[in-house]
Automatic annotation (TrEMBL):
The keyword Coiled coil appears for this protein: yes
Name of protein: PspA/IM30 family protein
Alphabetic keyword roster: Coiled coil
Region listing for Disordered, in residue ranges: 220-241
Family: Belongs to the PspA/Vipp/IM30 family.
Coiled coil: 28-123
Bias type Basic and acidic residues, positions: 220-235
InterPro entries named among the record's database cross-references: PspA_VIPP1 (IPR007157)
Amino acid sequence: MSIWRKLNTLFRASAHEPVAKLVDANDMRIFEQELRDAEQAIARSKRELAHLMAEKTRLERDNAGLQAAINKREQQASQALEQNEETLALELANLIAEDEALLHRQQQQHAKLQQQESELRRQLRDSGRALKHFYSEMRLAKANRHAEQVTRQLRGHATGLHSHMEDLNVSANRIRARQTEAEDVEDALTKLDQEQQHGDLDARLKAAGIDNGVSDGAKVLERLRAAQDQSERTDSSQPQP
């Protein structure tokens, strides 16, 4: 049975997983909607506070009117007693008692409204500060998410740029290699042309019997013999001891 319970747990977890992923994927939208809901709740609370304050003000006016009526009837009751109008004084006293009971109930209601107003004001004040904090959190979260997106984009651009630079470097090397090869071929052709031109010139000089300045073995021997003859003449011209 333990295996079946584990499988059942796994199925329930698997069913929950898409919902969790959906919530995670839309966390910012959910957060923004929750902030809007909180703003609407604060606005409703403000209206409730305004109605409560208006009711408290109405009670204050009613209580002030009742108190004034009680004071006036007390004076009337006192005058009736002075004139020995016991029945009239008792009637006035009953009215005073009813008004005093009503005034007491309304004063209790006023105190309760005052307490509710203070509590609601505190809640609105705390909620307003918390809402500002959460709005700051949302702006920071959006900024961080935007920074993450920009970082990912820059990383992708940097990777693409590096690839482009490598391609450009390869192409530039190939172009330089072809240019170097072309220059080498051109230099070789120039040398061949110069050699061919010199060969033709030497042939024409030789055909014309003109020395082209090229040294060969015969000329070297001729130069050596001339140098030897010169040395012998120099030795013979010197006086013998």
